[in-house]
Specification:
Elements: E1 47-53, E2 62-70, E3 74-79, E4 88-95, E5 99-112, E6 118-124, E7 132-133, H1 136-139, E8 149-153, H2 157-169, E9 173-177, H3 180-189, E10 195-199, H4 207-216, E11 223-228, H5 233-241, E12 246-249, H6 254-267
Parallel strand pairs: 8-9, 8-10, 10-11, 11-12
Antiparallel strand pairs: 1-2, 1-4, 2-3, 3-6, 4-5, 5-6, 5-7
Helix pairs in contact: 3-4
Length: 268
């Protein structure tokens, strides 16, 4: 392990440029990158959503659409009918994995989609997690990560050290791998972890190739959290298509990582 790493609970930057924002989803709703607006992509997306217009200046009506991206602070939905920025609306959405929510918010962005539809960004009055039924606090009451087996795969020793210390402090049983081939060897020989944290950008065999090999060899890697300081939206979506449970940008938000792990393990 490498000394001088950040303490548990801190953020740590990956090498090179800091990850930028994307024109996708809730990132476009604010110039300020906040935890509430972190995209929380799921394999269940795209998913249906009902949008009810509640603005007193506009006739009430119901729109059906498809959620393209979802964050803790809002959604990006594809609809066939445009809405004006600032429109007040109620949104109903059910996620089969993590519950449902109904909340009110305002249209913050409107643009055309590649398929001729309209992409509408809706920012909620309260973070989605406070609107879920049941809330994550209720679902996670009494649930922790103690004795959860985690395999951390990253070529950066400082990231491995950070995750090892943080997850161990939460009671996890942590093993590590510094490359894609090393990770596959561990999965073939050392049993199945409950969770794998996998860096997408590694020299030689990258994380997407590891995900492909896991599928081809039918290896059990548990639930997989893909991480990267460089990945594009396409990389993130490809990781989810290949079986990742969630994708998190570097610098790592360890509080969010812990919450996401607890949420998905509690739902399984």
């Amino acid at each position: 392990m490498v000394s001088g790493t950040s303490s548990p609970g801190s953020r740590v930057d990956g090498p090179g440029e800091a990850p930028g924002t994307s024109d996708h989803g809730v990132y476009s709703m604010s110039d300020e990158a906040s935890d509430e607006r972190r995209i929380f992509r799921r394999t269940s997306l795209p998913a249906s959503v009902s949008i009810h217009i509640e603005d007193p200046a506009i006739p009430a009506r119901e729109l059906e659409g498809t959620i393209v991206d979802i964050g803790l602070g809002g959604i990006l939905a594809r609809v066939d009918e445009g809405l004006a920025e600032g429109t007040l609306c109620a949104v109903r959405f059910t996620d089969p994995e993590t519950g449902s929510f109904e909340g009110r918010g305002f249209v913050r962005s409107v643009r055309s989609s590649d398929d001729g539809g309209i992409l509408v960004g809706i920012e909620f009055e309260a973070p989605i997690e406070s609107l879920r039924t049941p809330s994550s606090a209720d679902r996670l009451e009494g649930f922790n990560l103690e004795n959860t087996k985690v395999l951390v795969v990253d070529d950066e020793p400082s990231i491995v050290e950070l995750l090892y210390r943080f997850l161990s402090s939460r009671g996890c049983i942590v093993s590590t791998a510094g490359s894609g081939p090393e990770a596959l060897d561990a999965l073939r020989s050392s049993g199945s972890p409950d969770i794998t944290v996998l860096d997408l950008r590694m020299p030689g065999m990258d994380g997407l190739a590891v995900l492909q090999a896991i599928q081809e060899e039918n290896l059990d890697a548990g639930k997989i959290w893909a991480i990267s300081g460089y990945a594009s939206d396409n990389d993130a979506r490809e990781a989810l298509r290949l079986g990742a449970t969630d994708f998190i940008n570097k610098p790592l938000d360890l509080k969010y990582l812990e919450w996401s792990m607890q949420l998905h393990l509690a739902a399984s």
